[in-house]
Structure formats: C-alpha cells, structure tokens
Design goal:
single chain, mainly alpha, 12 helices
C-alpha cells in the first residue's frame, strides 16, 4: 500500500521486540475462525462428491477476503492520514512474522535440555511439533527442535516478508491466510484429501521462491557465522529435493550442512511410525547446542532479508520515500 521505505524494518523490529502478545487480538485467530465456519458450511451444504470443487472456495474466500479486508482498512486509514496508514501497515506486517516466537520456542527446548530436564524438553517440543515426543531421547528432541526452526524460517519469516516487499500488508496477510489454510485443512488424509487439496497446493506455490531464497541466505549465514557454508551448499543440491515437501528440504538441508549433522529419519505420529528422507550425513550426534546455532542462523537470515527487501522496496518505489 505505502511506498515508505521504513515500513518493512519497523515491522520486523516490532516482531523482534514484541513477538505476538497474547493480550492482543491476532489476525490468524480470525482466519482460523473463518476457515472453520466456511468448512462447516461446505460440509453442511455440499455432497462429498463436490468437495474437490468446493475446496477451491476456501482459498478464494479466505485468502481473497484477507487481502481485501487489509487493503480496505489501510485505504480508509490513508484517507485520515498517510502516516497513520503507514504505521498501521507496519503493525499488520509484524503480525504476519513470527521470528521471535519461533526462536523462543526452540530456545525453550534448549533451556530445559541445558538444565538436564529431558521430560520438560519433550513437553516443550510437543507444543511445536506434530510428532510423538513422550519417549524421545535427547538427540531426537534436539533434531525435532532444529528441524522445526529450520523449516519454519520460510513460512514464519521469509515468505511473509517476501510478499510484504511485493505487495505490502495486504499481500503479506494473504500469504498468512494461505499458510493458515494449509495448517488446518492441507492434509492428505481421508477427511481433507478433496476439501484441502487446493489450499495445500497454493501453499506449495506460495513458498516455492521464498524457500529457495532462504536456502541461499542460510548458506551465506553459515559463512558469516563460521559454520560449514560449503557443506550447506552441497547438501542443498544433494538432499533438498528428496524431502516429501517441495519446499521444506531447502532450509533443512542447508541447516544440516551448516551444522554438520543429519536431520530426518523416523518419527512417530499417534503411534504410527513414519520415515522421512535424511538431510545431511551423520558425522556426529546432535547436541543441545545445535538449537541456539540454528536460532542464530534464523536471526541472521531474517535480518539480511529485511535489509535486502528494504533496498528492493526503495528501488521499486523509485526513491527514498518517507511516506
């Protein structure tokens, strides 16, 4: 909406400082309620054989509605004051980013491990992953935390920032709607295979470019932080495409190479064991210190992208505009 150069860095700074305070209403909560209501209406009004076609309604209504509502709010605020609209846009973009929350979630697991409280670390990990954690040993708890932080660098940070650069808060909020849809209905199980297919596919498409940008930035971060940048680059080329997700393998393989560890392997979901392709080589056991190392890469990549995105915004807007 606004061409002000400072909107993106202010949005990122707000997330780094405040995160997502529980006392503030969050747009994702509203998106979740809308998704639940629309899904219920579809199941009530449509026959199961029409679910695949009806599945297109979810992204159309939720993503389109999120974009339109954000645009309308900012347009109305701009009629009052362009500065007010710009500040509101920064605040709205901040709600689409979760760098602070992602880092804190990983570091909570690390804190319990550092104190030798493995049961608490398992419980903390269970709050951020879908796999069973009750009986995991420390290396697998670390693996879960590292994988979660690495994978979510894309959809919690780089993707919303990427779309904010392209289209401001409306497009960033539309991306967050895409991601929320995928997390709620984008499953290949009997319940959602038809109703959620369009949401899952749209999420894959939306994250395609940001995932690959993230891998490049992680390689740069590995070099800057004196991790193994050469190995990170090699593993992105070798292992990224073997991940079941078309996008998640890029940040995970880059982190695995940078740290010199192996990610992936067996996970249990509600008692059912599932194997996911390995990312990296097992040159050593994962250890608790790998979690803060991954968090350092998260913040380096995020900050670097904000700088790049801000410069790109200045170029695209034709100058160093304050409003």
């Amino acid at each position: 909406m606004t061409a002000a150069w400072w909107v993106l860095p202010v949005a990122y700074a707000l997330d780094r400082l405040l995160g997502d305070p529980r006392w503030l209403p969050h747009p994702v909560v509203g998106m979740g309620k809308a998704i639940t209501a629309i899904e219920a209406a579809i199941r009530r009004l449509a026959k199961p054989r029409a679910y695949r076609a009806a599945g297109l309604l979810l992204p159309l209504l939720v993503v389109g509605g999120s974009f339109a509502l954000t645009w309308a709010v900012l347009w109305l605020l701009a009629q009052v004051s362009p500065w007010l609209a710009a500040l509101a846009e920064a605040a709205l973009i901040a709600t689409t980013i979760a760098a602070k929350g992602l880092q804190e979630a990983g570091m909570e697991v690390y804190g319990h491990l550092r104190r030798g409280d493995l049961p608490a670390a398992r419980r903390a990990l269970g709050m951020i992953v879908g796999r069973d954690t009750a009986h995991l040993q420390e290396p697998d708890v670390v693996r879960g935390a590292v994988e979660t932080v690495a994978e979510n660098i894309v959809d919690a940070v780089i993707s919303p920032l990427f779309f904010a650069v392209l289209g401001g808060a409306p497009l960033a909020m539309a991306y967050r709607a895409v991601n929320t849809l995928d997390s709620m209905v984008g499953y290949r199980n009997e319940k959602y295979i038809d109703l959620g297919w369009a949401s899952a596919r749209l999420d894959d498409i939306a994250n395609y470019i940001p995932a690959r940008l993230t891998a490049l930035l992680l390689i740069a971060a590995a070099w800057f932080l004196r991790f193994d940048a050469k190995r990170a680059a090699a593993l992105v080329r070798r292992d990224a495409s073997s991940h079941p997700s078309p996008n998640s393998g890029y940040p995970e393989s880059a982190v695995a190479g940078a740290l010199g560890v192996r990610l992936g392997g067996e996970n249990s979901y509600q008692g059912i064991v599932s194997f996911r392709s390995y990312m990296g080589d097992k040159t050593r056991e994962l250890e608790a210190g790998d979690i803060p190392k991954t968090s350092r890469m998260l913040y380096w990549v995020s900050s670097a992208f904000v700088v790049i995105g801000t410069l790109a915004g200045i170029v695209l807007s034709g100058g160093f505009n304050w409003i």
